[in-house]
Amino acid sequence: MTQLIESVPNISEGRRPEVIAACADAVRSVPGVTLLDIKPDEAHNRTVLTLIGHPEGLQTAILALYEAALATIDLRQHTGEHPRMGAVDVCPFIPIRGTTMADCVSLAKQVAASVAERWQIPVFLYEEAASASHRRNLADIRRGEFEGLPAKLHLPEWQPDFGGPAPHASFGATVIGAREALVAYNINLNTGSLAVAKAVAKAVRGAVGGLAHVKAMGVMSSDGRAQVSMNLVNTGKTPIYRVFELVRAEAARFGVTPSGSEIIGLVPQQALLDSAAYYLQIENWDPALVLENRVLEHV
Amino acid sequence: MTQLIESVPNISEGRRPEVIAACADAVRSVPGVTLLDIKPDEAHNRTVLTLIGHPEGLQTAILALYEAALATIDLRQHTGEHPRMGAVDVCPFIPIRGTTMADCVSLAKQVAASVAERWQIPVFLYEEAASASHRRNLADIRRGEFEGLPAKLHLPEWQPDFGGPAPHASFGATVIGAREALVAYNINLNTGSLAVAKAVAKAVRGAVGGLAHVKAMGVMSSDGRAQVSMNLVNTGKTPIYRVFELVRAEAARFGVTPSGSEIIGLVPQQALLDSAAYYLQIENWDPALVLENRVLEHV
Questions:
Q1: What pLDDT is recorded for position B2?
Q2: In chain A, what residues touch B279 (CB-CB under 8 Å)?
Q3: Contact criterion met (CB below 8 Å) for A12 and A75
Q4: What is the pLDDT of residue A295?
Q5: How far is B115 from chain A (nearest CA, A)?
Q6: Counting C-beta atoms within 10 Å of the first and last residue's C-beta, which end of chain B has fewer, N or C?
Q7: What are the sequence ranges of the domains in chain A?
Q8: Which chain A residues have a beta carbon less than 8 Å from that of B232?
Q9: In the predicted model, is pLDDT for residue B298 greater than 60?
Q10: pLDDT band at residue A296, thresholds of 50, 70 and 90?
Q11: Which residues of A are catalytically annotated?
Q12: What is the pLDDT of residues A26-65, one digit of tens each?
């Protein structure tokens, strides 16, 4: 089976097209790597790139991206609404096909070591690659931002995993790690009541007693329906169908039912196939039953 | 998007391993074509090959298969339980990804013309490629089998579409065409009553008032459950979830419910994704939302 890992590096530039193009070209030139998406955000002055490829190609592509960002982005000149501490601010690796979380942790550490060694950039490992539990969360690592780095890097509990102790003058520092694919998923309810959406969101939200790996809030959709807006951060352990069925059950106490749902961005095939297998009660379910998966195995 | 067509040629040899190997090697050697499966059947003295590839590669592979079968199979020596009229008995083309039924009809006609021209083998076009409605059905074309060919080929309504009028002395004649992917799908019921399975099968069977594109019969599964055993011959028009929900509804009148289902063989990704989208009520459903599909587009 072709090994595939996804990476979603965020760079601290969302305004200068020539810088975004230089960073995109750096990853695009690597064989076996596909640049799926580029999302610049002017207000945040930040761009999210989505790449996918086999592990070796991806390593080459991400290092080329760091080199391009180093050459074109100076954090001393950077302003924007989004918190940031480096020119490549954060870079997660995500197992997609024929690869494990351990493969992604290993890739994150290899890339981190190279970034520190080649360009003297301090690197923090986060999420599944974190070296301590207080360093798993991106927001905690990034607190203080670029401007606070000189002080933060001298704290014993914030020594970087690679490089340091001084930040890179123009680049700052960077956060590299491994995590599961994130699915942004909204369920619309057949009511205009925001209160119902908030109550249902609270019931399914993992942090307050709901489903693990689910972040949820109640909002109003643009067409006036109450909406449970969610991030599903591990659809392997907490599958989409379980979330959908719990939302249905919690909404029922208000006499409300889902009127539809929306996938925002991209969803791994497996997350949807698992839901088909659940509802169709397939007893011999195996992703190898899917014709196209047999083709990919042979590519 | 990578163009993919499937082909499922049936050859009239299921006993001599060296002949089956020669036919498999002929298709395996073609770049861009994957031999997914080889299913020899001794009693039928027949082997089903499953291939997938881009249209040009597939054309080359299928012609190589005809050449290998012509060199190794003599229908005058062939006996077996399955009806047959040629060394390659039947060869359908099936649109899988980035290809239409029209592409498959076109490919079928090109292959048919080459087979007739190169080796003087009479070819009938069937299903979506058929030249007349009485020639759509494989069983009608094959009636009389190899032994009846000399007489049949002289009937005005059974002139071959390419080649003829005489059958090839050792090869016989062949049937080439285009059809939708077939999904073999069984739903098990939480009852041991064969009568219930037969009643539910009758209710969903297209030919007697049920769902179009569904062939169904009631049988007993090997573990003693009543089973609705089906061939879904067009899951684009009659999707799996609709079949499952109708079986559920028809079983309910007997106080019976599905206890599970089974996919036999391979299923196109789209057939399962459509079911996930139905049950999850995805409003913005589009196969391009699936991460892996974006990768395939770039391959």
A1: 72
A2: 241, 244, 275-276, 279
A3: yes
A4: 72
A5: 27
A6: C
A7: 4-178, 183-294
A8: none
A9: no
A10: low
A11: 82
A12: 999 899 899 988 999 988 899 999 999 999 999 999 999 9
Test mutation, B58, B189, B291, B293, chain A, max A CBs within 10 A: B291
Residues 6+ apart with CB under 8 A from A54: A2, A3, A4, A5, A32, A33
Mean residue pLDDT of chain B comes to 94
Partner-chain residue, chosen from A6, A181, A244, that has the shortest CB–CB distance to B280: A244
Q: What ipTM score was computed for the predicted complex, to two decimals?
A: 0.82
Q: What is the CA radius of gyration of chain A?
A: 21
Q: What's the gap in Å between the CA of A161 and the closest CA on chain B? A: 31
CB–CB contact B276 A281 (8 Å):
no
Residue A109 amino acid letter: K
Nearest beta carbon to residue B273 from set A241, A276, A284: A276
Contact A263 B289 (CB under 8 A): yes
Predicted local distance difference test score (pLDDT) of residue B295:
72
Longest alpha-carbon distance in chain B:
60
Tokens at residue A66, please?
């760091």
Burial class of B95 by CB neighbour count within 10 A (0 to 12, 13 to 18, 19+): buried
Residue A272 identity (one-letter amino acid)? L
Under CATH, to which class is A183-294 assigned?
alpha beta
Residues of chain B contacting A6 with CB distance shorter than 8 Å: 291
* B288 vs A93, more confident: A93
pLDDT in tens, B73-119: 999 999 988 899 999 999 999 998 889 999 999 999 999 999 999 99
Per residue in B172-188, pLDDT (tens digit) is: 999 999 999 999 999 99
May I ask the CATH class of domain B183-293? alpha beta
Closest-CA residue of chain A to B247? A280
Which of A182, A185, A292, A299 should be substituted to probe chain B, the one whose Cβ sees the most B Cβ atoms within 10 Å? A292
Pairing status of strand B88-97 against strand B174-178: parallel
Q: Domain B4-178 belongs to what topology?
A: Formiminotransferase-cyclodeaminase; Chain B, domain 1 (3.30.990)
- The Cα A109–Cα A131 span in angstroms is 11
Centre a 10 Å sphere on the Cβ of residue A46 and count the other Cβ atoms it contains. 22
DSSP A74-131: -GGG---SS--SBSEEEEEEEEEES--HHHHHHHHHHHHHHHHHHH---EEEEETT-S
φ, ψ of residue B113 in degrees (nearest 5) = -60, -40
pLDDT grade for A299, boundaries at 50, 70 and 90: very low
Return the active site residues of B: 82
pLDDT of A221 above 60: yes
pLDDT at site B299: 44
Q: With CB atoms and an 8 Å threshold, state whether B266 touches A289.
A: yes
pLDDT attached to residue A292: 82
User: Do the chains contact at B262 and A282, CB–CB below 8 Å?
Assistant: yes
Q: Which of A258, A267, A292 sits opposite B97 (nearest CB)?
A: A292
Cβ–Cβ < 8 Å for A291, B6: yes
Whole-number average pLDDT of chain A: 94
